[in-house]
Amino acid sequence: KQASLSALAEIGDASVIPEFLNLLKGSDNSIKSSVLYALNKFRDESVTKELVKVMKAEPIAGLRVQATGILANYVDTKLIPDFLEVLRKDKDLDTCRVALDALIRFRNDKTIAPVLIELYKTVPPPIQPNVLGAIQSLGDRAVMPQLLTILEQETNYDTFNTILGTVQGLAGGQRFAPQAM
Q: Can you tell me the distance from the alpha carbon of 51 to that of 35, in angstroms, rounded to the nearest whole number?
């Protein structure tokens, strides 16, 4: 089945999309994974909607990660709220990391970094450095005051230095002495 799915996707005939979408509903996980890979060949609106559903609601984390990674390649600004929702709700670290990687692709969107600042304290602690890295990669200096507030309130030495590195990165390498904070 997996080889057939791959071959059908390579042909590129969109008439197979409805059957592919049906396979996502009742198949075993390896078939679902093959279907997701095959759907990556199509940029149809129905495919995008189904990938978003998988990204948000699939019980198997690996399949959510796969769907999120596929959607990240779309670089469609309409998906930004979906990626942010994943960060708000999903507790799987890999899914969150892939969603952050997807958001970094929207460097010119000034709405993302402020939301990431809000999400910083609510995401699982292992994801917090990734959130800071995404904020730095986005390069939106408008969030500097919020970052400085977070920095002032931080009591953990390692976390303080991670936040400080993000502040310095956004400031273009300008060094801040921690005692000046």
A: 11
Asked if residue 95 lies in contact with residue 68, where contact means CB atoms within 8 angstroms, the answer is yes
**How far apart are alpha carbons 130 and 134 in whole angstroms?**
6
What's the CA gap between 47 and 71, in Å, rounded? 10
Contact 95, 58 (CB under 8 A): no
Q: Which two tokens stand for residue 84?
A: 């942010």
- Euclidean distance between CA atoms 170 and 143, whole angstroms: 9
Q: Which of 41, 34, 35 is nearest to 22 (CA)?
A: 35
Looking at the whole model, is its pTM more than 0.85? Answer: yes
Please report where in the chains the tokens 């977070």 appear, as a residue.
150
Spatial contact of 64 and 95, defined as CB atoms under 8 Å apart: yes
- 8 A C-beta contact, residue 96 and residue 127: yes
Give per-residue pLDDT as tens, 89-115. 999 999 999 999 999 999 989 999 999
Q: How far is CA 38 from CA 1, 6, 19, 48, in A?
A: 12, 6, 12, 13
**Residue 90 neighbours by CB under 8 Å, 6+ apart:** 56, 64, 96, 99
* Cβ-contact 122, 91 below 8 angstroms: no
d(CA 137, CA 134): 5
* pLDDT tens column, 122-166: 999 999 999 999 999 999 999 999 999 999 999 999 999 999 999
